[in-house]
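Let's practice the habit of predicting before peeking. Look at the sequence and jot down your guess about where helices and strands might fall. Then scroll down.
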Amino acid sequence: MTSFREISPVDRPVQGTVRPPGSKSITNRALVLAALADGTSTLTGVLDSQDTQVMIDSLRRLGIEVVHDADRQTCTVSGCGAVIPADTAELWLENSGTSMRFLTSVCVLGGGRYRLDGVKRMRERPIGDLVRALRRLGADIEFEQPESECPPLVVQGSGGRIPGDRTSVDGRISSQFLSSLLMALPGIGHRVAVDVTGTPVSQPYVQMTLAMMESFGVSVDYSADLSRFEVPAACYRARHYDIEPDASAATYLWGAAAVTGGCVTVSGLNRQALQGDVEFVEVLKQMGCRVDWHDEGITVSGPVRCGVDVDMNAISDTAQTLAAVAVFADSPTTIRGVQHMRHKETDRVAAVVTELRRAGIRAEETEDGMTIHPGTPQPASIRTYDDHRMAMSFALLGLRVPGIRILDPDCTAKTYPHYFDDLDHLCREAL
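Done guessing? Here is the structure:
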C-alpha cells in the first residue's frame, strides 16, 4: 500500500521562525569545486539529503576523499587538483539532475572509463546538449541508447587532455548544462570559449555557479547577457565554505504564511543570498503579502489576496509553490516561461495541473506554463510522481482544508528530509 501523510488544517494563522537545511544547489556545487581544488576544503551547513548523498558517494567512487558528518552538517573534502584518481567507476545517480550533469563534465578530466546511470526517470531526462558541447571539445562520451540522448552514458576520460578551445551549449533546457561546463573546464589546461545558444533558463543559477567558482579562486569572463564565457585554465583553491539555507525550500514556509494569513520568518537568508529563489517573496508581495527583509532573515506576512501573471523562468523551482498559493487568491494566476519544468523530476507542468484538478481546482496547461483559478480544494490523495517539490507544495492546500493526503511523502528526502517535521513545528500552535 502506498504510504501517505494527511495534512491537518490549522485553526489560526501560523507564526514562527524556521531555518531550512542547506541549499542543495550550493551544496552540490561546493562539493564539486572542493573536489577539483588543490588542497583540503571544509564545507559547513551541508545539506544531508538523497541528492547530496548521491554526489558524495560518486565523488568517493572517483577516488576523492570526502568525510561527511551529517550531525554537524560538515564535509571535509581532499581535493584532487582536477586529476581524477580512479581509473574506472560506476556512478549511480538516482534522480539527481545536478549530480548527473555536473559529474559528466568532471569525468572528462579523468583517465579511465566512467559509467553514469540512474533511476527510470533519470533515463528519460535529456542530457544530449551537454554531451554535444563536451564532444565539440574532443571528449569521448557515448550513450548506451544513442537514440534517447539520455543516461546511461559512458565517459572515456583522456586525463584532461582535451584539444578543443571553443564550444557551444543550448541554454533552453537546463542551466545545469552550462554550470557543469563552467565548473569542470578550468581543469583541462587551456582557455576555453563557451557560447550559449537560445535564451538561457534559470539564469540566477548560472550566476550562483560563477560566484562560487570565484570563491574557490577561479574567475570567468562573461558577457552581460550570459551568452558568452571565457573560462581560464586554472586550479581551484581549497577553502572553508559556509552553505546558506535552501531558498527553494524556504518558499513552502513563506507559502504557509501566505495561505493562512500568518507571519513566517526564514532565517539565514537576505538580499545578499546567492540563490535567486529568494525573489519568490516579491511575487508574494505582488499578491498582497507583506515582505520584510532583514540582515538575518526574510519575513512574509499573509494573507495572499490577488492573483498574478508572472514569468517564473528565472525561479522555476518555486512555480509549484506559487501554484498552491494561487488557489487561495481572489483572481486567477498565470505562470509563464517554465516550459523547461517538463524535463525535471517529472513533467512538473502536467503534474501540477493534474493534481490541482484532482483536488477540485480549475487549472489549465499553457504552452509555457499554467493558469490556476481560485477555489476551495476538495479532499484528495495527491500523487507526487517521486518529485519532492510536488509533496512539499501541495501540503500547503491541507493547511486550509481537511482531507488532503500527500502520497509517498518520503520523496521529500531528495532535498528536505525533515520538511514535514518543520511544517508541523511551525503549525503546532495554530492547530
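How did you do? The mean pLDDT is 96.
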